[in-house]
Fold these 3 entries.
Entry 1:
Amino acid sequence: MDHKNDCSVCGKELVYLDEDENTECFYCKDPYTSNVRCEAGHYVCDRCHSLAGNDLVEQYCIRSSSREPLKMALDLMKHPQVKMHGPEHHFLVPAVLVTAYHNIKKTDAGRKRSDLKKARQRAEKVLGGFCGFYGDCGAAVGTGIAVSILTGATPLSRLEWSLSNLMTAKSLFTIANHGGPRCCKRNSFLAILEAAAFFQENLEITIPVNPDLKCEFHTLNKECLAGECSFYGT
């Protein structure tokens, strides 16, 4: 799925047209005229094609109107800048949760942008390899970051403080019970599913997710658990 030569979204061959046509970038949704797209119709602008992982996540989420965090996560994971494993997942998880929340609530675009900036600032402090070296998976931390931002938690909060830590604990428990070695895709999916249930119970918002999601990235993971992973599929 690391599409470096053809379409960065789906890997299909690029098609060069005789005439320009109106289109939009798959990631930033900005309008363009272009004479190139893939066989499936995807177009990725030069700016998004060259963005670093966290830049891509932030810009995509700012512009996204999606209410489905797993779908957003899959879109982003297909981009070459989001590697099979890496700390960009620590931001990706809270970013898609914050985005889904604001899109469902139809809150002010400025607040959504501000909350995504906060999520990025906090997530970038969660180092690569956190799961193994610190005993706290960055995807789980990401769910706590999302709840902290959306509830306005601080170290002096009462209920908000409790909810933020409980969110991380629930995600981490689920991820730990699934077993190692690490897989940033699997852990992100587990964390987002756990967060959707938590949001329903504690924040009174229904976040649509597909619990039957199948991973599209297992061929890139040499430590893949294969049939032992609940997302494994062909």
Note: Residues 3 and 11 are 5 Å apart (CA to CA).
Entry 2:
Amino acid sequence: MIKLGLTGSIGMGKSTTAAMFARRGLPVYDADAAVHAIYAPGGVAVAPLESAFPGVTGADGGIDRAKLREAVAGDEAAMKRLEAIVHPLVGAMQRDFLERSAADGADIVVLDIPLLFENGGDRRVDAIVVVSAPEAVQRERVMARGQMTEAQFAAILARQTPDSDKRKRADFIINTGLGLEYAQAQVDAVINALRAGVRAKEA
């Protein structure tokens, strides 16, 4: 089973690209969705995060991500405490996903992980797809969401490996700045290349 790491900086179109792989029948593990699940009311991260960062639980009983961002903003030690809580929980969900996919006979699985390089996930996959777009397109997409300030956007970019570095380390690059049809064709090319490589090894 080929483990394909999918990553890309904020606003690059990674989630849309992940959905394209899913529509083609590939199991997709969504690291962001895993975090949302453990932050949700009753989620396994709620109690330990509230203990480490008092006041980050929202009125609904789940983690208020805006409050959590404020609690760790600009504080490297706080960020490390956060990661020490969240990463093991998310890692367990990823292992469960891989076990289920293998049992179902999947030949390729996609691991959609925003911080693939930053957290060393690139060492645990067989190939890497980086989703990219021109910087102007990226900024326009992010700011159009209306969910963060320019300063917050800059802070996120500062924590992420630069897009140029990601592209250098990629096995495949999918450019989402040229429209959906072009991106879909690139997704198909990645899948075909991976399956052709397996057939070549087996021959």
Note: The radius of gyration is 18 Å.
Entry 3:
Amino acid sequence: MSVTENKAIVRRWVDEVLNKYNLDVLESMVAPDVINHAVPVAEMRFGFENFKRTIGVLFAAFPDHHMEIEDMGGEEDKVWYRGTRSGTHLGPGPLPGIEPSGKYVAVQHIHILRLVNGKIAEHWAIRDDLGFLRQIGLLPTPGQRSS
């Protein structure tokens, strides 16, 4: 598939799955042997069911999750985008051991997806987890004194 076609698939992925939590499209968009390099728990990295479970964890933590794409690029079989993930932290996670804070957060992300035959085969992410932890109150913001 062309880079243009792959970018359209990734835009649809963000719109349908990450913004609407439409899991009905997952099988048509994600390879059965997908590798998710972005999850912190090693045993969750491999396979369609674990990928689906990871998305469930994300929406349990942020029921109003939204990803806004701000930049997108691609080359050969990879597409990347930079965006802002926002939502209200109402459930446990998305990092292990993090309890719900009830706070609205907005965090920068960079995602890289490798596509094979029109399906996501690999996923990497660079997230501002430090910014997330600051926004929910687990870490002080710069210049803030700890008590």
Note: The longest strand covers residues 104-116.
